[in-house]
């Protein structure tokens, strides 16, 4: 079942950013922080924002946290509080518990406690930025395995007005364009007769090697021949 109601514990930059994005997507968000200023800042922006110590079981029970679908522990710096809060959410029966970790050890501890998803925002952002720095057209990527990935690439001007048949990345490089995203909407599973326009976002799936060759060869040189 998809989560509908979230509790975000810790309204620092990470927690606040996450909570506001969930609100923007139309979900209900209870924000909890023991810092009064942070709570005040979010009062009008979240469904509820409450000043409380998230490690206090009585308070968390009275807030009805157990009835929410997903709890996000966005406390990083204080490992003890992060771990105590995660344990409490699990014990209260929150269906899905996600926690931010600031070190490998912290992450391992959270996993051992049964946290459903551990995230490393700083590390993951560092990895993401590294990829974007060496791949100029890269918008985003998902690592499917050590060998395969899905990437979103901006269509460069050298491909403007060309059909997929002309570019033909599957035959030339071994990777496939599975969707095109442009102002007019998304084309899922485009055919050989669809055209690319500079600034479109193309979603490409394939091995790391095939996508890297496609990116380096076809997208940077203006040449589409392998
Ligand atoms: P960020 O890196 O997201 O900006 P930060 O550096 O401000 O966070 P963290 O220690 O990661 O600080 O804490 C995030 C938030 O969690 C802070 O706003 C802090 O007040 C809150 N927080 C920490 N411990 C608790 C607790 N036991 N109960 C409620 N809120 C807490």
Automatic annotation (TrEMBL):
Signal sequence segment: none
PROSITE patterns noted in UniProt: RCK_C, RCK_N
SUPFAM superfamilies attached to this UniProt entry: NAD(P)-binding Rossmann-fold domains, TrkA C-terminal domain-like
Swiss-Prot/TrEMBL GO biological process terms: potassium ion transport
Superkingdom: Bacteria
RCK N-terminal domain mapped to chain residues: 3-119
GO molecular function, one term: monoatomic cation transmembrane transporter activity
One Pfam family, short name: TrkA_N
InterPro entries in the record: NAD(P)-bd_dom_sf (IPR036291), RCK_C (IPR006037), RCK_C_sf (IPR036721), RCK_N (IPR003148), Trk_Ktr_HKT_K-transport (IPR050721)
Domain RCK C-terminal: start-end pairs: 136-220
PANTHER family the record matches: KTR SYSTEM POTASSIUM UPTAKE PROTEIN C, POTASSIUM CHANNEL PROTEIN 2-RELATED-RELATED
Protein name: TrkA family potassium uptake protein
Species of origin: Paenibacillus rhizophilus
């Amino acid at each position: 079942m998809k989560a509908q109601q979230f509790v975000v514990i810790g309204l620092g930059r990470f927690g606040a950013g996450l909570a506001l994005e969930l609100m923007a997507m139309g979900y209900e968000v209870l924000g909890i922080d023991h810092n009064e200023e942070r709570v005040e800042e979010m009062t009008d922006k979240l469904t509820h924002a409450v000043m409380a110590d998230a490690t206090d079981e009585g308070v968390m029970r009275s807030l009805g946290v157990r009835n929410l679908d997903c709890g996000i522990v966005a406390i990083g710096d204080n490992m003890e509080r992060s771990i105590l809060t995660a344990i409490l959410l699990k014990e209260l029966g929150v269906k899905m518990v996600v926690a931010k970790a600031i070190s490998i050890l912290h992450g391992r501890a959270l996993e051992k406690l049964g946290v459903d998803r551990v995230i490393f925002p700083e590390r993951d952002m560092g990895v993401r930025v590294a990829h974007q720095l060496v791949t100029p057209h890269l918008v985003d990527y998902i690592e499917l395995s050590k060998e395969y990935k899905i990437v979103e690439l901006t269509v460069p001007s050298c491909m403007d007005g060309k059909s997929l048949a002309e570019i033909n990345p599957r035959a030339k490089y071994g990777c496939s364009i599975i969707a095109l995203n442009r102002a007019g909407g998304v084309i899922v599973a485009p055919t050989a007769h669809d055209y690319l326009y500079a600034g479109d976002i193309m979603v490409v799936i394939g091995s790391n090697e095939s996508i890297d060759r496609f990116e380096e060869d076809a997208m940077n040189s203006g040449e589409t021949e392998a």
